Amino acid sequence: MAAVLQFLWQRLVSLLGSLLTVCALLAALAAYRVVSFEQTDDALRMDSKAQYLASLARPTGSAAATRPNIVFILFDDLGYGDIGAGAVQGNLISTPNIDKLAANGVTLSDFHSAAPVCSPARASYLTGRLPARAGLPNVLFPGGGFKNLLFSVILNPDSNVRLPAEEITLAEVLSAVGYRTGIVGKWHLGDSSPSLPNDMGFDRFFGALYSNDQEPFAFYRNRNIAVPAPADQRLMSERYAKEAIKFVQDPAGEPFFLYFAHNFPHDPLFVRQSLSGRSDAGLFGDVMAEVDDGIGKLVSALERKGLLDNTLIIISSDNGPWYLGDPGNQRGRKGNTFEGGMRVPFIAHWPAGIAGGRTETAMAMGTDLLPTVLDLLALPAPADRLLDGKSILGVLTQGDPTPHDYLYYMDGQQLFAVRDQRFKYRGPAAIHYGTDQMPIAFGVPQKEWLFDLAGDPRESYDTSDRHPKTLARLRQQFEAKQHELSANLRGWDTGR
What we know:
Layout: H1 2-36, H2 43-55, H3 61-65, E1 69-75, H4 96-103, E2 106-108, E3 111-112, H5 118-127, H6 146-154, H7 170-176, E4 180-186, E5 204-208, E6 219-221, E7 224-227, H8 236-248, E8 256-261, H9 282-304, E9 311-317, H10 339-342, E10 346-349, E11 358-360, E12 364-365, H11 369-376, H12 393-398, E13 407-411, E14 414-419, E15 423-426, E16 429-433, E17 442-446, E18 449-452, H13 468-487
Parallel strand pairs: 1-8, 1-9, 2-11, 3-12, 4-5, 4-8
Antiparallel strand pairs: 2-10, 5-6, 6-7, 9-10, 13-14, 14-15, 15-18, 16-17
């Protein structure tokens, strides 16, 4: 018996020694990464970016006078079914002001974010490039914190900690052609220069650098803290609405670009005490009702100034819903590349340019925003980099079919799926499962799948055997995209 106990003790000591060795190696790796990691910007691309922006001519005369103001309202974690315009029948949430914009504008029923999580999606909206192209495939965390160390430095060694400065943002383009530019709300593309809002084309910034569940959570005015952490989030919706209205009413004049990037309905949720209980959908509904109030006040401010007719208002979300919220009749939620994680609401309202009361089924993606604005203003695209998006101006104004042959679904640097207007091919990959009792998800390998979205929007049934030619075609597109990304991930024109 003593010999058995001694043997077990020796094995335990050996195991603990091995464990300590592994921990020491991981600690050494972490220390090395912390000391050695430094994000640098591409000097060649910075130079070509400067040349491109300098080359953009400012319109004069009648062309300048007819340029629309642009207001881009981006929700955080708003699901496809969370507003009346995209909701299934019986939704408990009331958003009358958003619904009015939809009724008098155009709704895209097949619009997608470029990523199922915050930072990558926002990078794509502003750059017209897939997240990996834009150099920001992963979620960012406050610099200097443990999560930033773990996820940005150790676990994702190829990840950046801010949007690369060589990327060209929509704000920089519009600023170059004479627009006033401002952001109210969530940035989440880096907390250090040269990738702060005021570095990346925005004249004015009021809001937060991160998601509202990340600490320290403070409100900034340009580069300075305006409301120190912990900022009272019960007042956030009211603050944001007032700042947005102040921006559009600025006597400095038009045209202007306002990026109104709300932190809600990302968890945790807060609402003013006086507005608690107004919705049948609980706190989530209360929050959405207050945000909707703010949008209504913003629209009224534009109308009072006589600006509403020539203001293009776009409303969308960075990804599908998180713990709460309605993904619509779709599989999945935030964090995965099923439709529920990436298909999001999209509304465009522009009385001077868009005939209202329409719903268009053409598929589109967040990468299309910048190319659409370039098309609207007759501006050239930069020649030194690939834009993954395409202009959907014709879809919005004339009901044209989609300009895309295919859309590509990525999470991080991994390509998960490709789809056309009807079918979606999901390549072989591990599917992560988790429950409320087991929040840690485990990856279970799966074969390739083919979903017929026309009849199966919930992606419940693999139809590979019924459509072998479609399967082969989409598989070929998937593999070609994989090869393209592998050969030139950032999408630089190697000829320059």
